[in-house]
Amino acid sequence: MYIEQLKSKKINLASYIPIPLGFILLIFFNFFVSDGVDTNQVIQQTINSIGVNLTFILLIAPLAFGLLLVLFWVKFIQGLSIRSLTTSRVKIDWKRFFFSFFLWGTITVLMILAMYSMHPENFVWNFKPEKFFVFLFLALVLIPMQTSFEEYLFRGHMMQGLGLAFNSRLIPLVVTSVLFGLMHISNPEVDKVGYVIMIYYIGTGFFLGIITLMDEGLELALGFHAANNLVGALLLTSDWTAFQTHSVFKDISEPSAGFDVLTPVFILFPILLFIFSKVYGWKNWKEKLTGKLSTIN
């Protein structure tokens, strides 16, 4: 009932257009502007000029501000509650958020430690206490805002708007997942690995969309996304990623398009779907993911 709950509201569907349209135009503008530009070189030059932490702020602050914009728009322009944007439940289920956060956070830590144990030559110790703890503060504030913006925009605002417009679950699932992937097309990882990495980005979009529709709310997606970006940024960095940070480790190896891209999408995400489905008793997968919206009495 995550989308259906809004059918009883008097909503102008045109109010769902401005923010997604503006963001989509920004995605394609960034793509065409950066086409042929070495984005990693630009990031390195910025780091050399203003430092790692200020570069991090410069990159992430607009997305963190985007969260405030989406919440303001929904609350004061559309006249809807933040609760209805977040979940179909009577109140936001923070236990779901923290279960997802700690589950994926733990898996991420174990994967990084396993990679370090198997291939220590691919890593260098990057921990500098005075720099790390400044970054830790910045990360704890800005990264959850950045990830929440992406969830509230794609799996919240856009998914609900498209669902209402087309009386469908499948259309918003497909559209938001693809657009979520395309949002990352200007990342330096794409230059380094190639467009095959879009399998990971779009696959992640589908995973997050599926758990949102199956669980009738954003809590699990919010927790997963926050853990993915926050734990990753604190533990591991490299010279070819969008977020280059004062992390504990630095990866100096060449990225593998096969293992790094395919393992999460085709192995880890299905395992997470299985765990979530058992914990929360998900049923009627076909109807919840591909069916028409239910009628609200």
Could you outline the blueprint of secondary structure elements for this entry?
Layout: H1 18-34, H2 39-50, H3 52-77, H4 82-86, H5 94-118, E1 123-125, H6 129-166, H7 170-182, H8 188-193, H9 198-215, H10 219-235, E2 236-238, E3 249-251, H11 257-280, H12 285-290
Parallel strand pairs: 2-3
Antiparallel strand pairs: 1-3
How would you describe this structure to a colleague?
It comes from Flavobacterium fragile. Keywords: Hydrolase, Membrane, Metalloprotease, Protease, Transmembrane, Transmembrane helix. This is CPBP family intramembrane metalloprotease. One of its GO terms (molecular function) is metallopeptidase activity. Residues 134-231 form the CAAX prenyl protease 2/Lysostaphin resistance protein A-like domain. This protein is mostly helical and 297 residues long. The protein has one domain (11-290). It has twelve helices and three strands, in the order αααααβαααααββαα. A three-stranded mixed beta sheet has the order 1-3-2. α3 runs parallel beside α6.
How do you describe this structure in short?
The chain has one domain.
Give descriptors for this structure.
297 residues; transmembrane; CPBP family intramembrane metalloprotease; metallopeptidase activity; mainly alpha; 3-stranded mixed beta sheet; 3 strands; membrane; transmembrane helix; 3% strand
- Annotation field: number of helices: 12
Cα-to-Cα separation, first versus last residue: 12 Å
Strand runs, count: 3
Order of the strands making up the biggest sheet: 1-3-2
Mass-distribution shape? globular
Could you say how many structural domains there are in total?
Answer: 1
**What share of residues is helical?**
55-70%
Structural class: mainly alpha
Q: Which blocks of ≥5 consecutive residues have pLDDT under 50?
A: none
Give the integer mean of the pLDDT values: 92
Radius of gyration computed on alpha carbons: 19 Å
Beta fraction: under 5%
Sheet bearing the most strands, described? 3 strands, mixed
Order of helices and strands: HHHHHEHHHHHEEHH
